[in-house]
Each structure stands twice: as structure tokens, then as C-alpha cells.
Amino acid sequence: MKRLFIFVLFSFFLLFKAQEQATAAAAAAIADAVGDSITTESTEPTERILSFHSDITVHKNSSLTVTETIVINSLGYNFKRGIFRTFPSVRNLNGKTKKVKFKILSVKKDGVTEHYSTTYESSQKTIYVGNEDTYLDPGKYTYQITYETPDQIGFFPKYDELYWNVNGMAWDFPIDKISATVHLPHGAKILQNACYSGVEGSTMQNCSSKIISDNEIEWQGGGLLSRENLTIAVGFPKGIVMPPPPPSFLEKNGISMFLLLVFGGLLLYGYNSWKKYGVDPEKPVVYPQFNVPEDMSPAELGYIHHEGYNANYLTASLVNLAVKKFVVIKETTQKSLLGISSGKKYEITKLKEPSPKLAKEEIGLMNDLFSKSSTIMLDGSYNSKIERAVGNFTHNMTFQYKAFIKEGNNSNKVVRPAIVVFAIFILTFIVSSIIGGSTEQLVIGVFGLIFVIIFFAITMVLISKMEGLNKGCIIAFIAIFFLPFFIGFIIFFIAGNFDQNTRSSFLFLIAGIGFLFAYRYLIKRPSEEKLRKQSLIDGFKMYMGAAENEVIKFHNPPQMTPAIFETYLPYAMVLGVDKIWGKKFQDMLEQMSVDYTNDWYTGSPIGFAGLGNTLNSSLTNSISSGSTPPSSSSSSGSSSSFSSGSSGGGFSGGGGGGGGGGGW
């Protein structure tokens, strides 16, 4: 039995070793097969550009005739029908961005004229060589593209120059060999030359030149990877190539003069329109008023004085109702777990039904707050009843007084000049972009214009829709969030690489917007009735907000009494003089050594100088918090640089021409 067990173990050992050797042999066979496959694949030809040669003839009128000979190896993957070639239609030359043209003279494949089609997009022109329905067999093909392009010579003080991107940075394939030959006009002599290779911006000079004759030169470059380019530059004496004539005065300044005339017309229109619609009536002289003007309610007086709604109008109305014994206000201090004060809360209790003699907004406020009970608590927590009361109060105020305040604003008068400003800007900017030949500039300008229009529209809406918003907050919001972008926008277009016409267009837009804001302010003409009421309110504010100076004493003001203090306190709150009014009352109590108590408000011990201010801030905050629902959680073309390339200060991609290409 023991021998049998040893025999079985030995048999399993031999079987395991045999299987291990077989697995190793199989792995080696697979590795050899993969290696053979990789070797075979690496020796197969790939789709690429075997050679790229550009033959460039410079004419005396500063135009070029270029013949590009491109030899490709096609396997039918990317080079399916043929090749495509892109040409940039914009370059920076002689200190300005200009549009350049490329006119195709002939296209051949293997020496035979070949069909091609042309498309235009963005800032480039693309030609597709080949037929859409005809596919190439695998093999080598030679394409020859001949084209003309005008105004490609750079003119410098001591020499003129051809600075040219031979193939461009936007080729999808490597290029094994690249070369270029330049033929200058008869009588020219090569003064200097340079070449640059590599990606855009590279100053590498993996290339060489050979002067064939006084006016002919040839460059040879090493192999290029995809997205790499050869740039050549040659300088020659001035006077051989005629520069284009300088722009006439009107060509150079026509748009600027037109915009100046239009802006002058806007100023004239604004002046005449202001004289007709915007000259304010004479405001009555302001005298101290010792009684509430025309029995206005505190909210009405505040709305007319500030020409809009403010949250403290509701607080003042509650205090006014308390002073008139319709409600009583009880203030208590909320305590935290540690006994530390964590805020104030107010209990408002209705004492009697509202009287028809009360202001409409005060009657509505009482009906909303005490619709189901005679007591309501303002402790900073959300209450739908408070939200409804605040909303109805705001709507009531707007309905009653907004039309009176807005009378004579003449907002519609701004529409016509605004249309003129933006329409003239759009027209001149498009014309400037067409003249300058910059599609990119046009796109940037369109987005810039959209931003400016949005900025202008939001600002105008905020200025005209003041209900519930503090004007100072609106101005701060505009200054913080919009003004930096607007200033940056102005600097970008004034200091950027834009021609004079484009800068003039944006200067006109900036000046036009400034005119519209000024015109919007000046065209307002308040009604005589509004000015009369505002002068009475100013006189009332003068009485409550001024110290007992000689002017006030001259008009025999009434003696300060608790009744006068209480009656006028809500008005002092909406006019922002509650501290001064309370201080006057405090001084009177100290001088007369009189104790003062009231039955309309109970709360923490504070001086009467701060009573109105305390109610104005803390009670207003409690109302605001109570009316706000809690938030719910929820889960390539040519370079734009203008410099000399032949003097050694150039780089790959710095010249004209170039572009790119690929297979289709």
C-alpha cells in the first residue's frame, strides 16, 4: 500500500512538469508570433506626406504666385478621395491686421487637372481636391496646387521682405521632406535670409538655405511632425516691389468722422429734446413745516420723498397704528440655552378694528396681520401670514403712488436714441471688420456687444425698478459686479490689436452709452404737483431733522410734547431723522425734568433718542425675516505678429500663408 501511494505521487509530479513545459512552449510560440506581427506591421508603409515643395514667385506689384507640389502615400484610411488644403484669410502685415486673398489658378493630380471644391469658414479658405464619389487606390500620388495671393510683402525702413509659412501648422500628417524656392523680381538682390521650423512660435532652425542667384534662393528642411511648419524669410532692397498706395484721408478717417457727426447729432437731438420735455418746473422754496404735509400717512410721505418703496415703510406704519391706539407693540429678548441674548422678538396685539380714516395701506396691513387672531409674533421665523401682509402692503403702495412718482419720467424718450447708438455701432463695426478682414474680430465684437447691451439693459431696469430695493445697494451691485467687466471691456478694445476704425466704433459705443445715461437723467421732468409735495416734505424733514437753530426758531416751532414726539416719530423713521427727533425729545425731558411713559410700546430700557432707530432696524429685520421662506436644499492660421523674419527675429508660423491640410 505504501509503494502504491508513492507511485501515485510520482505520477502526478511527472504530469505537472509535462504540463508546465507545454505551457512555457506555447507562451514562447505566442510571443514569437506577436513579435513577428509587430515587426511586420512596423515595416508596412503609413499614410504620410512624402514631400512638400513650394515654388514662390514674387511680382513687382507685391503679389505672389505659388505652386505647391505635395506627394502623399495613401492607404485609403484618411486619404480616401484626395487632400484638402486650408489658407488663412487674415494676417498682420505692415502694422495692421488685413484680409488676404488666395485665387486658385490650377489643381492637378499626377500631372492631370483634378476636380476641386472650395469652402469658406471662420478666417480661412479650404479647397478639397478630388471627387466625393471617387476613392483612391492605395499608392503614391502627386498633387500640384497653383494660386495667386496679393499684398504679401512686408515693407521696412531699409529693406522689403517676404516672410512666408511654407506649409502651415495645421497639417494632420508628418512630412518627410520639405523645401521651398523663392524667385524675386528681376533686378532684386538677396540681402538677408532666415528660416525657422517646428511648432508655432518655435525659433529652431532645423533647415538650411542655398542662394542660387542674386534673386533666387532655396531652402531645405528636415522632417516635420504633424502640426509643425517651415517658415522662410528673405530681405531685398527697397524699390523693387511697389508698396500698395497709402489709404486716402477718407479711407483712413471716414468712419471716425461719420461717427463724430452722428454723436454730434445725438448731442443736438438730446439738447433740443431736453429743452422741450426735460426742463424742470421751478421748485417751490422750502420752508420749515411743523405739521404733517396734507395729512399724508408715513408710508405715503416716504414713498413720495424717496420716489420708491422701502421696507421700513411697513415698520413705520405699524408704529403709526400703535401711536393711534389700534395696536400695541411688546418687545421681548430671546434667550439662548446659555442665557445669552440671541435677538429680539415683537408681539403685535390688535386693540380695535381699523378705522376708515386710516390710510388704505394701513387698513390692509391690519386686515392681513389679524385675519384669524388678534395677536401676531414677529420672532424672525417664517410666517406665511407675514409674507402675505408684506406682499400686499408693497403692492398697495405701488398701486397707489407709483404712477404719481413716475409721471414726467419720459422713459420712452430714451428708446429712439438708444436704437440709433446700437444700430450705428453695429453698422460701423461690421464695416470695420470687413475692411480689416478679421472674422475673429467680428466674433469677439458680437459677444462684446451682447455683454454691453445686457449691462445697459440690467442697469436701466434696476434704475427704473426701485420697489423694495435700496438705491445705494443697486449702485454698489453695479459697481462690484458689472463695472470691472465694463472697464476691462473698454481697455481691451482700446488697447487691443484693432485698427483705428474698430477703436472708433467702440469709442462711439462707450460715448453713446454715457450719453444715454445722462439723457435718461436729464429728460425727467417731474410734475409741478410732485415738486410741491416734495418741497412740503423737505420742509417737514427740515423741522424734525435740524437742531433748534435760529432759522427754525424764527418760524415759531411748536413746543415739543410727548404727543408731538409720538405722532411724528413714524415720519421721522421714513425720513431717516429718527435719531435726531428722538434726541430732541430726550433733551426736552431732561430740561423739563419730566417722566414719560406710553401705552403703545413696551420693551427693553433704551433712551428715547434711540427708540425710533431701534424699532426701525430690529422690527424691520424681524418683518423681513418673517416674510422670507426658508431656502430648500437640493440635491490655426498665420501669426498676428508684425516683425522682420529675415533679420533673425522671426519664428515658425510668423509669416503669411501657411494654413494646413489633410486627407478626406
UniProtKB/TrEMBL annotation:
<feature type="region of interest" description="Disordered">
    <location>
        <begin position="621"/>
        <end position="664"/>
    </location>
</feature>
<protein>
    <submittedName>
        <fullName>Transmembrane signal peptide protein</fullName>
    </submittedName>
</protein>
<feature type="signal peptide">
    <location>
        <begin position="1"/>
        <end position="18"/>
    </location>
</feature>
<feature type="domain" description="Predicted membrane protein YciQ-like C-terminal">
    <location>
        <begin position="290"/>
        <end position="502"/>
    </location>
</feature>
<feature type="transmembrane region" description="Helical">
    <location>
        <begin position="414"/>
        <end position="436"/>
    </location>
</feature>
<feature type="transmembrane region" description="Helical">
    <location>
        <begin position="254"/>
        <end position="271"/>
    </location>
</feature>
<dbReference type="InterPro" id="IPR018702">
    <property type="entry name" value="DUF2207"/>
</dbReference>
<feature type="domain" description="DUF2207">
    <location>
        <begin position="48"/>
        <end position="234"/>
    </location>
</feature>
<dbReference type="Pfam" id="PF20990">
    <property type="entry name" value="DUF2207_C"/>
</dbReference>
<keyword id="KW-0472">Membrane</keyword>
<feature type="compositionally biased region" description="Low complexity">
    <location>
        <begin position="621"/>
        <end position="645"/>
    </location>
</feature>
<feature type="transmembrane region" description="Helical">
    <location>
        <begin position="442"/>
        <end position="462"/>
    </location>
</feature>
<feature type="transmembrane region" description="Helical">
    <location>
        <begin position="474"/>
        <end position="494"/>
    </location>
</feature>
<keyword id="KW-1133">Transmembrane helix</keyword>
<keyword id="KW-0732">Signal</keyword>
<dbReference type="Pfam" id="PF09972">
    <property type="entry name" value="DUF2207"/>
</dbReference>
<keyword id="KW-0812">Transmembrane</keyword>
<feature type="compositionally biased region" description="Gly residues">
    <location>
        <begin position="646"/>
        <end position="664"/>
    </location>
</feature>
<feature type="transmembrane region" description="Helical">
    <location>
        <begin position="506"/>
        <end position="523"/>
    </location>
</feature>
<dbReference type="InterPro" id="IPR048389">
    <property type="entry name" value="YciQ-like_C"/>
</dbReference>
